[in-house]
Amino acid sequence: LNPLFQAMESEISAAFDSGEPEDILSRAFKLTVTREDICTLQPLGWLNDRIMNFYMGLLVERSKKEGYPAVYAFNTFFYSKLSSTSHKGVKKWTKGVDIFKHDVILVPIHLRIHWTLLVVDLREKTIKYFDSLGQRGDHICKTVLKYLEEESREKRNIELTASEWTLHSMGTEEIPQQNNGSDCGVFVCKFADFISRDKPIIFTPEHMPYFRRKMVWEIIHQQLL
Fold first, then answer.
1. Does residue 1 belong to any structural domain of this protein?
2. 0.85 exceeded by the pTM?
3. pLDDT tens digit string along 174-189?
């Protein structure tokens, strides 16, 4: 092991093992991440909203650099609010933002006890649903397309043509699938990571323990490796 990697490893272990649960380990994107939050990244831990939203913030931050598609990420509470109300209920969430000026929109979704991801590609007019348990999300794609139509009408006075859009739930042969009951949050973060770099999704469930540790370091240092 090179010294840099060893230093990172000891830092990751310290994040899990020393100090108090309420210790603040990172602050950015109007979010505070405590040791308790970071500990959800331990093996088989369930990622919480704070970790998910912080990681989405890191992806958006990276997308501002040269050579990356422009990314907008909704927070994890957006979809549940949208689906329980309508466009009216989330209208203010994009105050001062034109989401249509981005290339990719990430919508992390919390379905009671499972994380999934919806991705809008405005360049290709596609809405794709990524679920590491292989469940279909056709109704979720439709709900978000309807939201985009209303958002476009209201904010830009432009009618979207629904027939020009392709909606697709990714099949189990198209994307990697989790092999336990707890890695869905990490899968969502990594789907979003690869998509926001326009890279093919080539990781496997075997990468999860490594991704978890890497995410600890990235969140603490507020930079993606």
1. no
2. yes
3. 999 999 999 999 999 9
